[in-house]
Amino acid sequence: MKEQLAEIRTQALAAVEAAGDSAALDALRVKYLGKKGELTAVLKQMGRLSPEERPVIGQLANEVRASLEQAIQQQSEKLERAALEARLKLEAVDVTIPGKAPVLGHKHPMYEALDEIKDIFVGMGFTVLDGPEIELAEYNFDKLNAEEGHPSRDWSDTFYFDTDSRVMLRSQTSPMQVRAMETMDLPIRIIAPGRVYRKDEVDATHSPMFHQVEGMVIDKGVTMADLKGTLNLVMEKLYGKGTVTRFRPHHFPFTEPSCEMDIQCHKCHGKGCPTCKGEGWIEVLGAGMIHPHVLEMAGIDPDVYSGWAFGMGLERMAMGRFKISDLRLIFENDVRFLEQF
Ligand code: PHE
After folding, report:
1. Does ligand 1 come within 6 angstroms of the Cβ of 171?
2. Which of 20, 40, 114, 276 has its CA 20 to 30 A from that of 139?
């Protein structure tokens, strides 16, 4: 039996050392130490031994059991450590790998143009105002001298919210003239940039939503010369010294006299090209002296005060400033386009 026990010990220890996972170890525990295990089988035969042999074999059997249990325990710890190390290796983070730079967006060229425009006017003492895009027809039209029946109030041109045409998406930033007159102390120097809406089809030069910058000055003794001088200076600052402008007579219900201002085409310098549709000139804004009746409706005495106002298309300014040929590029937000500025 001594040999049997020694044999079991050698075999079992070798098997334990070779066990590759905890399932294999459990199987070995059962195989050698379990109720029907090999060691137990040997011990069951102890009855056949002589009284002298019994304690000797008993002690040996206990030693074998103890060394097996210890070996299994050690192997199990070794396997656990190996498994942990393998997992740590697998989940390791290499902090020395260079990071992925987050993709940043890009300031839209139109807002860059707007920032320049704001800077120029703020530098001349103007205040920048923000106004509602959902506007009362009273402010968009009535208080600007465009009474009931005026063609621009037509449903085919304007987005109304109600059936009696009182609430609308503003079609111009000019209602901000009235809001400023009603709320600010004189003299007033303001610009008011923002979105405006008209029922236009989309093409290379039109969109149902676009941006305008309104500007207005009211003080004593303000004349058309101030309007021209100020706007000429603004165009020179935006488009460079020597930028050529021209003023053409026009009509707006809320200014008298009214004009439109063109700048000489930045592409062809007046010769005529596709960008200026062969004209040599690009229309940039509408302007004029504020109609005395408009001042009066806002509670300002036209015999004491006078003022001028302008409204310019911001998309068009940006297209000129950055030499962009198609309005749709401004609205598509394609980063390949935006990143060029
Ligand atoms: N609101 C006018 C337009 O949208 C522009 C304008 C503004 C004209 C101020 C004169 C004075 O066409």
Report:
1. no
2. 114
Contact 127, 176 (CB under 8 A): no
- Tell me the average pLDDT of the chain: 91
Q: Could you tell me the distance, in angstroms and rounded to a whole number, from the CA of residue 310 to the centre of ligand 1?
A: 6
Residues 6+ apart with CB under 8 A from 168: 134, 135, 136, 137, 140, 158, 159, 160, 161
pLDDT at residue 107 tops 80: yes
pLDDT of residue 192: 98
Q: β-strand 209-219 against 306-313: which pairing, if any?
A: antiparallel
Q: Bigger pLDDT: 71 or 312?
A: 312
Q: Is 174 in the pocket of ligand 1 (CB under 6 A)?
A: yes
Ligand 1 centroid from CA 287, angstroms: 6
DSSP string for 97-141: SPPPPPPP----HHHHHHHHHHHHHHHTTPEE----SEEEHHHHT
Residue 132 confidence (pLDDT) above 80:
yes
Would you say 308 and 222 are in contact if contact means Cβ atoms under 8 Å apart? Answer: yes
List the residue whose alpha carbon is closest to atom 2 of ligand 1: 311
- The pTM (predicted TM-score) of the whole model is 0.71
Write the Ramachandran bin of 134: left for phi over 0, alpha for psi from -120 to 50, otherwise beta: beta
User: With a 6 A CB cut-off, is 37 part of the ligand 1 pocket?
Assistant: no
Question: Rounded to whole angstroms, what are the CA distances from 62 to 31, 52, 65, 329?
Answer: 16, 17, 5, 89
Say if residues 54 and 60 touch (Cβ distance below 8 Å). Answer: no
- Residue 47: partners with Cβ closer than 8 Å, 6 or more residues away: none
With beta carbons less than 8 A apart as the criterion, state whether 117 and 231 touch.
no
